[in-house]
Design a protein that fits this description.
The chain has a domain of 79 residues. Helices cover 10% and strands 58% of the residues. The chain contains two helices and eight strands. The strands form two sheets. A four-stranded antiparallel β-sheet has the order 1-4-5-8. The longest helix is centred in the N-terminal third of the chain and has 7 residues. It starts with a helix and ends with a strand.
C-alpha cells in the first residue's frame, strides 16, 4: 500500500482511456478463368488471413488532450498465392502449379495527437 500512496501522482498522471482494436479478415479461395494464348486455364487464389492491430491511449490529468497510437498492419504477413491449372500433359487433371507468390510485409505506425 505504501508504494501506491508514494506514487499516487504518477498513477493519476498515467490514468486515462486505453483502446485496443484488432481486425481479422479471412479471404476465401476463389477460382477464375484466365485466357493464356487463346486458351482458358483455371486459376485459383489461395486462402489467406489478414490481421491488423491498434492500441491507443488518451491521457487525463495534467496532460489531458494528449493521446498516443500504435498500429501494426498485416501482423501475420501471410503471402498472396495463386495457382494455375496444368492443362496439357499431366496425369492428374486437377494438378496445379504456383503462379504468383507475393509478400507485402508488416507496417508499423506510431503517432501522437494533442488537442488544446
Amino acid at each position: 500500500m505504501r508504494i501506491v500512496v508514494a506514487n499516487i501522482k504518477w498513477i493519476m498522471l498515467a490514468a486515462g482511456v486505453l483502446t485496443c482494436t484488432m481486425i481479422y479478415a479471412a479471404i476465401a479461395p476463389q477460382a477464375a478463368l484466365r485466357g493464356t494464348f487463346g486458351e482458358n486455364v483455371p486459376s485459383a487464389i489461395n486462402a489467406e488471413s489478414i490481421v491488423d492491430a491498434q492500441l491507443g491511449y488518451a491521457f487525463e490529468g495534467r496532460v489531458e488532450g494528449l493521446s498516443l497510437l500504435m498500429q501494426v498492419n498485416n501482423l501475420t504477413d501471410e503471402p498472396y498465392v495463386t495457382e494455375v491449372g496444368v492443362s496439357v500433359g499431366s496425369v492428374n487433371p486437377n494438378a496445379t502449379l504456383p503462379e504468383r507468390y507475393t509478400t507485402y510485409g508488416r507496417e508499423y505506425l506510431i503517432g501522437f495527437n494533442y488537442r488544446l
